[in-house]
Each structure stands twice: as C-alpha cells, then as structure tokens.
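Retro notes (design track)

What went well: tokenization of the new backbones is finally stable.
What didn't: we kept losing track of which sequence belonged to which structure.
Fix going forward: every design gets posted as structure first, then sequence, in one message. First example under the new rule, 116 residues:
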C-alpha cells in the first residue's frame, strides 16, 4: 500500500496517525504541509476523494480563520483556497491518503478506515 500523510510534527493527533500508519507496516510519504502546502488542485483532488468541501477542512483554532472572515458563509470556495495558499495553517490535519483513498484523520481512529 502507498500512503501519504499531510502532517505537522507539532500536532499530537498527527503524530498518533503517523505512528499508526507505521504500526500497520507502511512507510508513508510525510509532507509537512506547513512547509510544503498542497496547491489548490491537489486540495480539490483530496476533497473529492474524502467527499468533503473546502470548509470541512478549515482549522479554526489557532489560525487566522476569524480574522480573515472565513466564518462568513458568503465567502466562496476560491477565496478559501486563496486563504489556505497564503496561510496553510488553515488546513485541518492530518489528511492521509492510502492507495488513492483519502480521509481527514481527526479523530485519529479515522485512519483505520483507510487500513482495511
């Protein structure tokens, strides 16, 4: 199985998911999304695979979410993608892809759905 994790080492949930992937015998490609954020095209592909909208992956706590007015329902998807490009910390984590199937693994137990 091929696995990718959009990860930040400072996040306990992200570390737990990475450890679980390794326990399952995988050596995932680890992408520190704060240093190497996915572009809008990649995010759109991930969202489609997860069955989520861009609003579903927005991290509110500890981010400029409110300051940027992203809580306003009138803010469109393209504006949100632009905000994420400027502030990758807005991406909720970790996002994991295993053999083309993706999931936002929060809580960390969600990763099990990708391992079966």
């Amino acid at each position: 199985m091929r696995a990718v994790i959009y990860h930040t080492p400072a996040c306990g949930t992200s570390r737990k998911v990475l450890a679980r992937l390794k326990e399952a015998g995988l050596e995932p490609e680890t992408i520190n999304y704060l240093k190497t954020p996915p572009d809008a095209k990649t995010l759109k592909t991930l969202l489609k695979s997860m069955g989520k909208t861009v609003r579903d992956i927005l991290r509110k706590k500890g981010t400029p979410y409110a300051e940027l007015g992203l809580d306003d329902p009138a803010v469109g998807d393209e504006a949100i993608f632009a905000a994420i490009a400027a502030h990758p910390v807005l991406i909720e984590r970790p996002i994991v892809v295993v053999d083309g199937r993706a999931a936002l693994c929060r809580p960390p137990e969600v990763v099990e759905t990708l391992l079966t």
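Added context from the reviewer: The mean pLDDT is 96.
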